[in-house]
TrEMBL record:
Binds 2 heme c groups covalently per subunit. The cytochrome bc1 complex is composed of a cytochrome b (QcrB), the Rieske iron-sulfur protein (QcrA) and a diheme cytochrome c (QcrC) subunit. The chain crosses the membrane at residues 242-261. Heme c 1 binds at C60, C63, H64. Keywords: Cell membrane, Electron transport, Heme, Iron, Lyase, Membrane, Metal-binding, Repeat, Respiratory chain, Signal, Translocase, Transmembrane, Transmembrane helix, Transport. Its EC number is 7.1.1.8. Pfam families: Cytochrom_C, Cytochrome_CBB3. GO terms for cellular component: plasma membrane. GO terms for molecular function: heme binding; iron ion binding; lyase activity; quinol-cytochrome-c reductase activity. This is Cytochrome bc1 complex cytochrome c subunit. It comes from Streptomyces parvulus. Residues 47-126, 142-220 form the Cytochrome c domain. InterPro entries: bc1_cytC-su, Cyt_c-like_dom, Cyt_c-like_dom_sf, Cytochrome_c_Oxidase_Subunit. It is found in: Cell membrane.
Amino acid sequence: MKKLSARRRHPLAALVVLLLALACTGGLYAAFAPASKAQADETAQSLAIDEGKKLYAVGCASCHGTGGQGTTDGPSLVGVGAAAVDFQVGTGRMPAQQPGAQVPKKKVIYSQAEIDQLAAYIASLGAGPAVPSEEKYGPEGADIAKGGELFRTNCAQCHNFTGKGGALTHGKYAPTLEGVDPKHIYEAMQTGPQNMPSFPDTTLSEQNKKDIIAYLDAVNGDDTVEPGGLSLGGLGPVSEGLFAWVFGLGALIAVAVWVAARTAKAKKS
């Protein structure tokens, strides 16, 4: 007892007790304290990847391979990124209904949560374009006139100058952009789906993409009025001139035939 009392009175005893208390407190905090935000985000991402892998095995692996490496029925998905998945699945193009020259847009069969999980799994296979935030494709700060210039330079050859779509070769086509979600337009420019070339930020910057989306909204929005009446699909001056030529010239020929017939009949009488 005397020895124990002597140790308690040692000058370092209080320091040892304090260190032991701090160690116990730290251990208990580490064991029971809530996880940090970074840890929580990492856990949620891991769960999303796991769930996406299950969805992929059921709906995608038969064409794209069990590990996304691709098969004769579908291309590799390694490195396509989350944006490609969000576009293809979010527009109903994937899973494909049947093979063909081009996979059309159709009813979406996955919820947005499931699409996010699929995108997380595909993104884990290799780095690629991420799903854009609303700030990137929203109308704030967009230059509509600049967007029209960029669209006519890079897109109108296939989609025509108002985005109404057009035919390509071998049964392919450029779909209409009217009523398409701005996020999906941005993702299409990022990833280049099917016959479309990709426009990475090195080719069209984020601001350029925003401007193009604003232009399409301006020419195809709900408040858009066709200044010339009948729009003829917005196909441009060549087709509209051909329409006027065929029907206008046809009407003139019909009038000429009618006048000649009336003249001949009058002479006989």
